[in-house]
Amino acid sequence: MIIFSYNILLIILYPIFLLIGFFRLCFSKENFISFRQKFFATHNYNNFKGLETIIHFASIGELNSTKFLLDRLDSDKILLTCSTVSSYTLSKKKYPSIKIIFLPIDYYWNVKKFLSKTNINRIFWIDSEIWPNWLNYSKKAKIKNILINGRLSNKSFNNWKKFKYFSIYLGKKYELILAKSLEDKKKLNEVFQREVFYLGNLKFYLNVEISKDKKNKLCFASIHRSEFELVIKIINKLNLNLFDSITIIPRHIQFVSELKTMIGEDFKNFVKIHDKFGENLTLFDDSKIVFMGGSLIQHGGQNPLEALARGCYILSGKFNENFNEQYFDLEKLGLASIFDNDSNKIASKINDLIKLNFDNSVLINNYFKANTKFFNKMIEMIEKC
């Protein structure tokens, strides 16, 4: 009855979702491939013969969490699925030998069509992916669902608590649930009313490579459109004589031209705007300081670990609740600073930091080792399912 009610609601909303899809297509947030595959499960199913495992990641952030699984499992039998055009583009670049598609939206006819035409026997859901029809019909088909790096934002947590019986029903569809953090373990345990394990956060699965030849470079990374003005205000208050260069990496590259216009003539030769997917690590290698975006607005912050793995000192605004455990640890270790949205204080801290030659390699290496020590246990549990 629960899943029936859910499907009735989805059918009622279908024209609206379809209209939204058309608008996204018009504004290049979808393309014809993503639109057809997501809304109509239109795939060349002959290409999926011999594939047994789906690893689903919604967007670029979750894509980075798949590497550990791809390194440990038989990649010849894996199908990667995603939800956004940007994650699809980057994943095709990173894993050219692996088949990658857009996962069909959670309408029962899409799910049943897909499952009937493939031989998938397990699905890894990365991060916060809870798709009721996928969970329900794959369980009926004796396909194992495993939630890895599971997390719930405070908003999602409160919403799922309102639908207690539905969330408990869905929790039973998972063979195994591995949380991203101890806090997420408590949330998922309360929502699903079942055993949840914590063995580490896959976002820590990175090569720590710290250059000894850091330049006086500052990088603003994953900056959202609504943060552009705030970042420019910070730059206006910096002593530019202290810097070799300043780079801004927009979260969404379709807004690069708008950002360039906002930068104006004063900084256009000094402030660089990065407009390519998947090349952030090169910029982090040279940068001494990285300010992580998504934290000056109520978005929840962005993952600081890639920049940290390259030896950068991390700065963040106060809205970083999606990564609050990491930022708490880093601030305690002296590897990061968190600020209210005060451009004067942020600029002053950056001016002070850029003058320093700090060696944080030991602290960073120890931090990553401590957070990856149970990863092999994770694989053991997955293989026992």
Quickly count the helices. Answer: 18
Q: How many separate structural domains? A: 2
Q: How do the strands line up in the largest sheet?
A: 3-2-1-4-5-6-7
What's the pLDDT, averaged over the residues? Answer: 93
Class of secondary structure makeup = alpha/beta
Unreliable segments of 5+ consecutive residues = none
CATH domain fold name of the largest domain: Rossmann fold
Q: What sort of overall outline do the alpha carbons produce when their principal axes are compared?
A: globular
CATH superfamily of the largest domain: 3-Deoxy-D-manno-octulosonic-acid transferase, N-terminal domain
What is Rg? 22 Å
Helix content: 40-55%
The biggest beta sheet is recorded as: 7 strands, parallel
Judging by the overall fold, what is the CATH architecture of the largest domain? Answer: 3-Layer(aba) Sandwich
How are the SSEs placed, and which strands pair?
Blueprint: H1 2-26, H2 32-40, E1 53-56, H3 60-63, H4 67-72, E2 78-82, H5 85-94, E3 99-102, H6 108-116, E4 122-126, H7 132-140, E5 144-150, H8 154-161, H9 164-171, E6 174-179, H10 182-192, E7 197-198, E8 217-223, H11 228-236, E9 245-250, H12 256-267, E10 271-273, H13 280-286, E11 289-292, H14 305-309, E12 313-317, H15 324-333, E13 336-339, H16 343-353, H17 361-370, H18 375-384
Q: What does this molecule look like?
A:
The protein has 385 residues and is of the alpha/beta class. It has 2 domains: 28-205 and 375-384, Rossmann fold (3-Layer(aba) Sandwich), CATH 3.40.50.11720; 217-359, Glycogen Phosphorylase B (Rossmann fold, 3-Layer(aba) Sandwich). The protein has helices spanning 2-26, 32-40, 60-63, 67-72, 85-94, 108-116, 132-140, 154-161, 164-171, 182-192, 228-236, 256-267, 280-286, 305-309, 324-333, 343-353, 361-370, 375-384, and strands at residues 53-56, 78-82, 99-102, 122-126, 144-150, 174-179, 197-198, 217-223, 245-250, 271-273, 289-292, 313-317, 336-339. Strand 9 (245-250), helix 12 (256-267) and strand 10 form a beta-alpha-beta unit. Helix 6 runs parallel beside helix 7 (132-140) and helix 11 (228-236) packs across helix 16 (343-353).
